[in-house]
Specification:
binds S-adenosylmethionine, four-stranded antiparallel beta sheet, globular, 15 strands, 40% helix
Amino acid sequence: MAIGSKSTVMRTQYAAWPYPKVPLLAAVPSTHPYELHADWLWDRCGSGPAPQRPRIWLAGCGTFQPYVFGVANPHAEITATDLSEPSLARAKTRCVLHRQRHVRFAPVDLDDPSTWPAGQFDVIECYGVLMNVADPLATLRGLAAKLTERGVLRLMVYPHWSRQRVFQLQRLAKLLGLHAGERAHPAALRTFVRRLPLAHPLRYAFTSYADSKNDAGIVDGFLHAGDRGFTGFQLGALARDAGLVPGHWFHRPWGQPDAMAERLQLNDRSQSFVLDYLDLWQELRSNFVVCLRRADAPARQVQPPRPHPSFTGSEHALRHRLRLLRLQWLGGKLPSRTTDDTVAVAAADLRALARGDAPEHLADCGLLLGGIDRAPRLPAHTDFAAESAFLDHTTTLRCGRRAPNPLYAHLFAAFERAQRHPELGLPDLDAQMGRWLPWADPLEERPITYGLTPYATYQRFRVNVDEHFARTDLGEARDYAAVRLRNDAQCLQRVRSLLADASELPVRAHDDAALRELFVLLCTHEQLFVTLEPA
Ligand SMILES: C[S@@+](CC[C@H](N)C(=O)[O-])C[C@H]1O[C@@H](n2cnc3c(N)ncnc32)[C@H](O)[C@@H]1O
């Protein structure tokens, strides 16, 4: 999509459906977003203590982030920008209601640098936005150029493999004629997906997706007019080409490449390799969230341990001080997005932090800064030269009796990678399964029998998958116009009846190729293999 037209499409979508939809009065306790404090982010990235009054830019802030960053950073100068003026208006109202007076707002198009705010920033937050812009590398390069020397850019992008079910739901919506331009379409998609059997992985994906609870979330997830995912390798290359290096991965320990390389015996790999592998096996358990620094930033530094500023009592707001007092008497739990679980803190620890002491046993929990060098040990990135051929292969339809079901193409990608790309040096599938054994999270349980994760599906269908590897007679086709299903006419008729029964859907004519694709998406979930014949 051309640059101007992409922003026009995004502006229209997010003007009609400001995201996220969170009640205006919903409050975040002032101690909760401690991992978004500029000092925390700088510390984790080895940048040392952040400036007293850091400049923070929220690039594509949506309706909620300005408030949360305001709460997390009461001493910062915050600039919140977005393409969608209704989102900015809602974010502004929220900040007024919650007395966050240090956030200023401006409409900014990340596709058009002439609209960008002036000056450099100590923290830039670009969360869930880069996949919406016309040229992600150009935008990321521009953001890198807006960082101060030690500045930190926190980036969230969707992972290619773990998000395949969302992309399949987007494809389903498109084939059904549902889009963000009609107010009734999010509800229509919800109604239609609920017609699917309980055991259907697309129904499971839809209902277990937190954002499917409201229409704006359904649009952002399933009726989106132009998002995309990034593989671990693509993200690594993107950061490198923008002149950035990972300072800290903003995941729970599972998604920290060093920790996972250790567990999966991938110690000689790069961070992008390990994250790509976690995503391929759908064990990333989150979007890709990474704190990046400029490649030319001064060397990482480790400061002496010091208490997190939000817990020293120095913050000015009365409500915050009262909350700290309560925690200092009763202790409590704090949410964490970077450690294994919520952080339990004893009242005595909080009293020590308030005095400016640094209890050593808190070193890992995020309330203590400095003390530890958290630099990733693995090199940031290696290329996977054949990646685009591999990605092409996963979207190509395979023809023959017992061909991989396209509904499960992303599971086959995990099964096939080592075999198709020996240059990556992965062990065979059996050995990989052995390494996953203590760590994989087989989501499948009744009523979902299989199809959610490669690990659990292979456990059940090992014989059939191994048989598939032994076959050499499968042809290939680019699209559903070039293939026929087994009993093609009956399959197409079955889909026509399904659509006719769904009064919530817009009336539209479908060609045979669309009906075939709908059949695969809607009616084949109980088959890991299907029969597709060349037309
Ligand atoms: C998925 S939402 C994320 C919002 C927010 N960052 C959050 O995490 O809650 C994507 C946001 O990016 C904004 N956006 C999309 N394209 C943009 C562009 N070209 N320039 C600026 N903002 C854009 C949308 O308006 C929307 O608010």
